[in-house]
Amino acid sequence: MAYLLRKFSDKNAWAEVEDSPLWEQGDCPAQAFVQVFDNRAGVSTWRVNTEEEVERVIAAQAFMRSTIGDFAYCLIDEEILRKDGLTLKNTPVKTPDKEVNSLHVDIVGLTAHQLIRLARRINEEFDPLVMTRLEILEAAAKFFRQHKFDRNFLFSGGNKGRSEEEIAISKNLLVNLWKKAEIDLPSTQN
Amino acid sequence: MVSSMTAIVAPDVGTGRKIFFPFLVMDLPDPSSADDVVIAGRQRASEPEPVLADTSPGTTTIWAPNRLQRDLDTLVIHDATGFLDTVQLRKHGIRLLAEPIITYTMIAPKAFKISGTTLEEAEEPLEEATATTGSVANEISAPHAEVTELLSLFLENVQTEEIQDRCELIISGIIDSYGTSGIDALQAHLVVQAQLVAPTLEPLFWKFLTALGVRRGDPTDRIAKEILLRHLNSPSAGRRAASASALGAIPDAAVLTALERRAAVEQNRMVQATLNAHIRTLKRHGLPAPKIL
Lengths: 190, 293
Description:
The complex is a heterodimer.
Chain A: E1 3-8, H1 11-17, H2 21-24, H3 30-36, E2 43-48, H4 51-62, E3 71-77, H5 78-83, E4 87-90, H6 98-101, E5 104-108, H7 112-124, E6 128-131, H8 133-145, H9 151-155, H10 164-169, H11 173-179
Antiparallel strand pairs in A: 1-2, 1-3, 2-5, 3-6, 4-5
Helix pairs in contact in A: 4-8
Chain B: E1 2-11, E2 18-27, H1 34-46, E3 61-63, E4 75-77, H2 80-86, E5 92-96, H3 126-155, H4 161-178, H5 180-197, H6 202-211, H7 220-231, H8 237-247, H9 253-265, H10 269-285
Antiparallel strand pairs in B: 1-2, 2-5, 3-4
Helix pairs in contact in B: 2-3, 3-4, 3-5, 4-5, 4-6, 5-6, 6-8, 7-8, 8-10, 9-10
């Protein structure tokens, strides 16, 4: 059974409104709504079937940010969404992991009611899960070692990649993690 | 009643800018005049207490807000006596100017000589007093000035993930640079500002808690841990979630116990998930053996 992995962009904000009375009124608190409707293209999700895919998707996404922290997410049963009549569209994206790029799926064409219903389902039906920062770094280090993650994606310029110079002046991300020995990367560039 | 209006100036060692502390000078009532005492009594009754003030010697007194100076939203005075000595103001009350939300406050300097009272202190030479005041102001103004800029960045921008990430980096930088003074400045400003613009500022408080999870060595780590453990039982679910995440970076038996205790009573699903994740991680990685004394 396939699940769609959906990230909570701000788990603290979601926690704050999890018990909001607005849910019972059929509404959705703003702090939750902006986390579901955060992209005009649709609701960004990742189709995952195995535990390793979950780890790879999360670690790959984590490295697209300038800081790495806990990653909160939920796994949405794809069948439920299809029964709700929602439209799914495969939309490959670029990440350090070429194999997971094609797992990206957008939920598109959502009406306002559908968005709120999806937010309510996320709040009430699908358990929130958290992968800790340490777990993400461990997973990323493993995938870099196994060459599942492309080191050059982070160090070379281009779409969402970072130049050596950007990395060097970055206060965080890979260089800092590297310096602090928080992540083990292959030491030579290809 | 109002006798003059001017500004106290102090150089800021952190930014190189001059900091202008606007104030309003007022004549104090003369206790020998019954009318003045009545007027003063009425005024004091309508004035709110300082937002955060400790008048014991050597402590920091924080007065807020100060919207007249965009780069100094919150005015911090380490020792009010120094400032008053510097400008040679005796027997005057100082009212800080603030708008649009005003927290009126009267500063009572240690060497406040009111006729009819016995409190008197030896006067420092003016030059010495100025030097002392300047160094104190410089010492404390740098982290506070940076926090003020952080607040401006946060409040004046749309709260995108990028802005929030940037704020987290700035907060971490302040704590990295100033240690416990940085934590004090962040806490003070966030507490004061949260009373004025809550809940707008709450996400920034979560970023502050997150930044406390980075290990920097004692005494910073000790203070950070205390703050995080306190907020682990906060009425705010967001703060509990942020604290749980930050505490997860501290491989400590006391922390693990605190997380497990919280998990046993936690009702919020997101906080529970965060607690479970960190309990799992801490248990898998093991905790350092306790020191044998």
